[in-house]
Amino acid sequence: MTPNAVAQKLLSFGNPLDRQTALALDAADPLAHFREQFLITDPDVCYLDGNSLGRLPKATVASVNTFLTDEWGTQLVDGWAHWIDQATEAGDLLGRVCLGAAAGQTLVQDTTSVNFYQACLAAINARPGRKTVIIDAANFPTDRFILQGIAKQLGLNLITLNNDGTGGPGAVDVDATDELITPEILRAFLTDDVAMVTLQVIHYRSGAQPDVKAITDLCRANGTLVVWDASHAVGSVDLRFDEWGVDLAVGCTYKYLNAGPGAPAWLYVRKGLQLEIGVPIQGWFAQDKQFEMGPVFEPTTTEMRRFQIASPSIIGIRMVQASLRMIEEATMSAIEAKAQLGTELMFALFDAWLAPLGLTLITPREPGRRGGHISIVHTDAKKIAAALRTMNNVIPDFRTPSGIRLAIAPLPTSFTEVYDGFARLRDLVESRDYLKLQDNGSRVT
Question: 253: which DSSP letter?
Fold first, then answer.
C-alpha cells in the first residue's frame, strides 16, 4: 500500500482516537481468528513485544508433545532416518512462506549468531585481497561484536557507519534519518577494497527498513557481498529474497515467527553463490559422504547442506514448523498489510496522545520503510517501560539509550490491544506515576 492508502484505510474505519474504531478494525480483520490459536492466559494484558518474543501457538504444544511421545519416545535412534534432513526441509518451508525464496537456499539451524559468523566469514573469504568490511553503529550488538572479532582476527579494516551517534571501531559519521542507511550514504564508502557489507532488513531499534534490493544491487556492481540480518523483519515484512537478488541472510524464529525462546535460527545463501563461497565451519553434516566418516573434509557440492554444521534441534524445528504452517495459511501479504495498518494506528495515537507529552518518534512513517514495530523516545524511557509492565499490564521493551519499542504481531495481536496499550501509556506518562517505580535489578529490559 502507498502511504496515503494505508492512512485512508485506517480513517475509513472511523476516528483512530475512538476505541470503537479499533473494535471495527478487529471485526473486519481477516487474520483476527488466528488470535484464538495462541495461548493467552491474561486477556487484559496488552502484549506489544512480539517483535522480541512471540506468543506461544497452541499448535506448538501439540507438535512438540507428539514428537516426544510418537517419534523420539518410540523410534529412538531410528528416527534419524527421517530427522536427518529436517534442517533443509524446514528451511525450504521457511523460504517459501516467509522469504520469497525457492527451495535449496535456506537452512533452519543453530543460532542467528553462528549463522551470521558463517555468512560473514564466507563472504569475506570469497573476496580475497579485499580488506575492508562495513557495518552500521545501529546494528544489533551481536552482529557488531562478531564482525569486530572477525576484523581483529583477520586484520581487516572495519568501517562503522555512525548512524545513531554511538560510534564504534572505525566510526565514520553519516547523515542518517531514523538510523536508515540509504544507497546514497553507502555509495561513498564502496571502494574496490570492500569485501562485505552487513545491514539489517529492519533496524532493531528504530524499525526503519532500508531498500534491500537497491543496496544489494549497488554492492554487487562493486563486487561486494551483502549479509542481511532479517531477524526483526521475518514474519512482519513480505520479503522477496529471490526477486531482490539477496546473496546471504540470517534471522531468528522466535520473534514474529513465534517459534519460542532460543528456537533455531535460519541461514539463507543464494543458489548461484553456494559453490562460489567456502564453508567456514567444516562440520560433519556438510560432508559429502557423511556416514563414511572419512579422514578429510569433502563438502557436498550440490546442496545447501554444505553450510550445515551439526545435528539440528529436532524439537526446535518442530516449533518452527508449527508456526510456519499457521503463517502459510495466513499469507505474508496479509500479515504485512496488517502490520502496516497497525503501525499506522500507532502513529495516529502517538501524534494525538504522546507527542504533546514530550515523546518523540524515531521510526519512518512511510509503510514501505518500516516493519511491525515503532520506537518512541523519552528521557525516562527505561522507567516508563518498566512501569507499563508492573503498573499498567502493558508489555513493551526498552532499548538503550532512551527508546521504547511497541509492536503489532499480526497474528496474535488485535487492534484493540494496540489501542488500549497506547491509552495506558498516555495515562502513565501524563500522571508521572512511573517515577514511583523502584528498579527491580533485572538485566532484561
Answer: S
